[in-house]
Amino acid sequence: MNFSANFDRFQEVVRHRRSCRIYEQQALPAGLVQQALELAMLSPNSSNMQLWEFHHISTPAVIRSLGPACLDQKAVSTASELVVFVARRDLFRERADRLVANQLKVMGKEKRSDLSTPERKLIDYWDRLMPLLYRHCCGFWTLVRKLAVWWTAWRKPQYREVSETDMRVVAHKSVSLAAQTFMLAIAAAGYDSCPLEGFDSSRVKKILGLGKRSEITMIVSCGKRSAAGIYGERFRLPPADVYFQH
Ligand SMILES: Cc1cc2nc3c(=O)[nH]c(=O)nc-3n(C[C@H](O)[C@H](O)[C@H](O)COP(=O)(O)O)c2cc1C
What we know:
Low-confidence stretches: none
Number of strands: 4
Helix content: 40-55%
CATH architecture of the domain at 14-88 and 166-230: 3-Layer(aba) Sandwich
CATH superfamily of the domain at 14-88 and 166-230: NADH Oxidase
Structural class: alpha+beta
Strand order of the largest sheet: 1-2-4-3
CATH class of the domain at 14-88 and 166-230: Alpha Beta
Distance between the termini: 22 Å
Number of helices: 10
Strand content: 5-15%
Bound molecules: flavin mononucleotide
């Protein structure tokens, strides 16, 4: 079916993207990774909390030092550049404050007392609900949130994914969407990438000086594909096995 020229171009980009395990020794155009990351930052993300960080590694010595921590995968050792996609749940308060400040500015209001009831509800979403969902302390807040859900869910539909583990999933979902936007941007420029979860997170964090609370969602290596770097034809299950219309 023909929808639009943009759709055709988008299909080309999606079909071009393959996980590349070996790259040519060829630098990426200057600024490509930064620009692709700026597009990644436009990705949809949970409550717009933007609990993410993007660590761009372009220094050959650092890429070399990350090789063993990435289990000696050639997708890393032959890469021109790497991006480490990091979830930062711990920054919930700082991000919420910035969203509140932005929303007050959009509303043209200076303080809480100037807000109408609907405006206060919107501000409270970030100022109160988000911290309530993200805060954690030895399972205590998970228990409080689960009890609150149990109490309200028998009367009306209720969002139920409120445990600390659920909130980790929430954060990593958003970071993964950013990683996908990034990989498609790299593909649109005619270059290649490989998402990686095969690494020793503790060693990678040590090399990059990331704190204990930074959680690595994935590493994406980038470069120009070598023909040998694409391992065979792409295999996907037939749509009929995974597509269900309701
Ligand atoms: C979250 C995630 C982690 C992955 N980790 C690795 C990895 O550590 N090493 C690797 O060679 N490929 C890795 N891959 C790539 C997958 O194996 C690849 O996407 C899959 O085989 C489909 O191939 P395609 O991307 O070429 O379509 C990963 C993919 C994803 C989405």
